[in-house]
Amino acid sequence: MVFQCYLCDAAPVYLTYFCAPCTETRRILQVYGAEETRNIIKRVCVRDNAQRNYKISSELKKDIESLKNTDHKLKMIKFSKESP
Ligand SMILES: [Zn+2]
User: Fold this and answer.
1) What is the mean pLDDT of residues 49-58?
2) What's the pTM value of the predicted model, to 2 decimals?
C-alpha cells in the first residue's frame, strides 16, 4: 500500500514514513535538534517585507548589470566586425 511522505506530503512511500530527501532532512534535524533547526529555517528561509524588497532590488541590479554587459559585448563584436 502506498502512503504519502509524512514530512513533505508529496512523495509516495512504501515501507517507511519519509521519502529519501526527507529522511536526510530528518537526520539533519536530529543532529541539530528541532529548536535549532527551526531557528535556522526561520533565519534563512523566512523573510520579512524589507528583506524581500532588498532581495528584489538586488536581483534587479544583477539583471541590469547583465544587460549592460551583454550590450557592451554586442558593441565590442560590432566594433570588431567594422574594423579591418
Ligand atoms: Zn518527503
Assistant:
1) 89
2) 0.56
Give yes or no: residues 13 and 52 share one domain: no
Around ion ligand 1, residues with a beta carbon closer than 5 Å are: 5, 7-8, 11, 19, 22
Claim to verify: residue 42 and residue 55 sit in the same structural domain:
no
Helical H segments across 12-82, by residue range: 20-32, 34-44, 49-82
Please give the distance, rounded to the nearest whole angstrom, from the Cα atom of residue 2 to the centre of ligand 1.
13
Check: CB of residue 25 under 8 Å from CB of residue 17: no
How many angstroms is it from 12 CA to the middle of ligand 1? 8
